[in-house]
Model the fold of this input.
Amino acid sequence: KAGVTQTPRYLIKTRGQQVTLSCSPISGHRSVSWYQQTPGQGLQFLFEYFSETQRNKGNFPGRFSGRQFSNSRSEMNVSTLELGDSALYLCASADRGTTTNEKLFFGSGTQLSVL
Amino acid sequence: GDSVTQMEGPVTLSEEAFLTINCTYTATGYPSLFWYVQYPGEGLQLLLKATKADDKGSNKGFEATYRKETTSFHLEKGSVQVSDSAVYFCALSDLGQGAQKLVFGQGTRLTINP
Done:
C-alpha cells in the first residue's frame, strides 16, 4: 500500500499570496488531518476531515482552510500569507479517526517558506 | 485544555548508553498516549502507544509505561544505537467533536555518537 503522499515537497511564496497544499491518504482511509510544525510552536493541530466534512478544528485564524474530496484526498489553503506561516505542514490519515487509540499515518510534509 | 510537557533537548549520548526521555501530560479524560519519531526530512512515525493506565508500549527496544498516578509516559531504551538519532515526540490523543486529535509535546532531539 502506498503511504500518505503530500505535494509539493517544498514551496516558496511571498507575503500576501495564497497557497494550496495537497494530501492523498492511504487507500481506504477516510480521515485526514493536518498539523503545522514550527520550531517555536512545535506541532499544532489545524483541522480534520472525514467524508468531506470538517469534524474538528484547531485554534488557527480563518486564513487557514481546508477541504476533502469524495476520494478522501484533501487540500489545505492559506490565504494572505504571513511570515509566521513558514512551517512544515504535515498531513495524517487514519481509517476512521473516531477512537483515541487509532494509529495516524503521516506524510513527509510540505515545507512552506514565506518571504 | 490538554497538554504534554516533554524533557527539553537536545540530548546527546554515546552508543550503548541508557536513554530516558521524560514526558508528563495533563488531560481531563482518559487519553491514549503515544511516542512518535521523526527522522531528518521525514514525517512522523509511530514508535509505540499505550491506551490505558499501566499499559506498557514497546517497539524496537523502546518502552514506555502509562502511569496515571504520576500522569507520565517516559520513554526508555536500554542501549541506544547511532540509528536512533532523531526527534522524539510524546503525544496524547483527544477526541474533539468525535474526531481524533493529537496534542504533542515540544519534541526532544536525540543524537547518538559512535
Summary: The interface with chain B takes residues 4, 31, 33, 35, 42-45, 48, 50, 55-56, 58, 90, 92, 94, 97-104, 106-109 of chain A (CB under 8 Å). Chain A has a mean pLDDT of 93. Chain A is about 0% helix and 50% strand.
